[in-house]
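Reply to dn_fold:

You asked what the input looked like. This is it:
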Amino acid sequence: MPPTRRSSTAATSPGDDLVESYAIASVDRDEVLRYMGYRGQGLSPDMGARIDEVVRSCLALARPRASIRCFDVAGVRDDDGTPVVVLDGTALELRGHSIARHLDGAVAVGVMAVTVGMGVERELRRLSLTDTTAQVIFDAAGTTAVERAADAAEASVVRMAAERGLFCNYRFSPGYGDLPLETQPTLLAALDAQRRLGITLSDSLLMTPTKSVTAVVGMFAVPQPTSHSSCADCPCYDFCLLRPAGRTCHG
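and this is what came back:
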């Protein structure tokens, strides 16, 4: 498939606080199949054509957007044996051994929320009542699309870090390891995600639109041996804001 295109609009606030929009023109069909649960089974021509049709429909309805902010790390405190990463200028705190390891040595953190919008959500609901096969495909396409949008948002975090002379690791979301889902309300509030993106939370902490992602990315004074250690295999390659200027993020 052709490279995904990207467009962005900065918020009227400082450079470490952005609202962006992305034009996701294509997604990897293998990723869609993976989210559908395929494990190398054969596809009939009819099913392959159906998948491509539903994916196109999903991308046509998607309106990928992100809210991104950068916060300095104020320190790490101990809360009855559980480390808590404290961020400067926000009520957001990142609790747990997993996130403390992920951010060990970080001097700042990029925080993001990404969604593909309510158009995808409404179509998912309609298909659940009218065409369950298409719903499964559409659901997988929506997941693939929001992950690609998250790649684009992560590329913006990498660029923000590079402007500070810092280096990134990779995104880490509430619910991974022991970073609790209870982080979501404060994280979304720190990004003003309801007003900016229309993301709301249920009592069980599930986001609407469901095809939404939240995550944090560490920023460090030295390069990190992670997914950003080379350009060739970087998930942000298609969205990179540094390569066109002849720069890299890995030193």
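The helical segments are 29-36, 45-61, 97-102, 118-130, 132-163, 184-190, 193-197.
Hope that clears it up.
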